Amino acid sequence: MTNTIIEFKNVTKQYDNDSPVLDHVSFEIERGKFYTLLGPSGCGKTTILRLIAGFTEASVGDIYFDGKKMNDVPANKRQVNTVFQDYALFPHLNVFENVAFGLRIKKLKESVIKQKVQEALTFVNLAGYENREIREMSGGQRQRVAIARAIVNEPEVILLDEPLSALDLKLRTEMQYELRELQRRLGITFIFVTHDQEEALAMSDEIFVLNRGKIQQSGTPIDIYDEPINRFVADFIGESNIVEGRMIEDYLVEFVGGRFECVDQGLNPNEAVEIVIRPEDLEITTKERGKLKVKVDSQLFRGVHYEISCYDEDQNEWLVHSTKKANVGDEIGLYFDPEAIHVMRFGESEADFDRRLEAYDHGDAHEQ
């Protein structure tokens, strides 16, 4: 049996004469993993969820579930359940009846319903809450009720449409850990939608980064963060310093007037490139030791580090995350290791980008 449970083949979704919400998207989802669809508002991530759930139909292309085409399969016949942003719980029903709702529609025996509901509530740490009214539940508890209602039907895939967005920061962080642990214990596929980069990095086995109706890049959180494929991904995932440069040869790149060793290869000699260095990979040091010489423009204390904004002689801004303090107006040096430099191709056409993205999805461009 193949490990692929969901597959999109050249799927486009377009409403009337508007631009496509999804534009010829292809990808595969494997069993038992935690996937995150990440991107800004309007990028197409919720549309993917709705297509999987059967709430909307593809304009072009095919969607497969367990190798079987599911374009025309109605939502209630699909082995998926959705946890919505507002949880969509019934306020007039208690916790037990909310979780039991789908089982009653299936007309299961009362003894079976009771057993399954109790098992689901125990799984989400809500045993003993069966008779509690929904209005008496906290935000985190309501989310657990919604998840219990989803898992009680024993789906093969659970879809989660920004279910943490209404929670405060502390509870949201706690629920990230709970959701991840729940997915591991269940061993089923979770597909999670968010626009929060930190949330995606913390929870996912694999992330799909979307923009303008296309998957810009897919990979593990480490791959996405350390090896962004283009400026959008580098900018959207975390914070980045991005400057223009030139690839001299393999393992040697030029930017801001200097030549620096790097670990990238496979680009053309003298090719125009963009350089990415993450703020936490820059070390504050003396001007003599620094590979870059900059002047401190501002400094903010962020609790675990200082966020320091600097400018070099060419007025390129450099953002630094450091436990060291630097005073506004100081002239300092910035040091970085070759591994801190990530090189991206610069100035390619849309067609070139699409071809390279296709190659990347097949694993051919990972070493760029």
UniProtKB/TrEMBL annotation:
GO molecular function: ABC-type putrescine transporter activity; ATP binding; ATP hydrolysis activity
Entry superkingdom: Bacteria
Domain ABC transporter positions: 6-237
EC numbers on record: 7.6.2.11
Annotated catalysed reactions: ATP + H2O + polyamine-[polyamine-binding protein]Side 1 = ADP + phosphate + polyamineSide 2 + [polyamine-binding protein]Side 1
Span of the signal peptide: none
SMART domains reported in the protein's UniProt record: AAA
SUPFAM superfamilies in alphabetical order: MOP-like, P-loop containing nucleoside triphosphate hydrolases
Keywords: ATP-binding, Cell membrane, Membrane, Nucleotide-binding, Translocase, Transport
The family this protein is said to belong to: Belongs to the ABC transporter superfamily. Spermidine/putrescine importer (TC 3.A.1.11.1) family.
Quaternary structure, from the entry: The complex is composed of two ATP-binding proteins (PotA), two transmembrane proteins (PotB and PotC) and a solute-binding protein (PotD).
Function: Part of the ABC transporter complex PotABCD involved in spermidine/putrescine import. Responsible for energy coupling to the transport system.
Name of this protein: Spermidine/putrescine import ATP-binding protein PotA
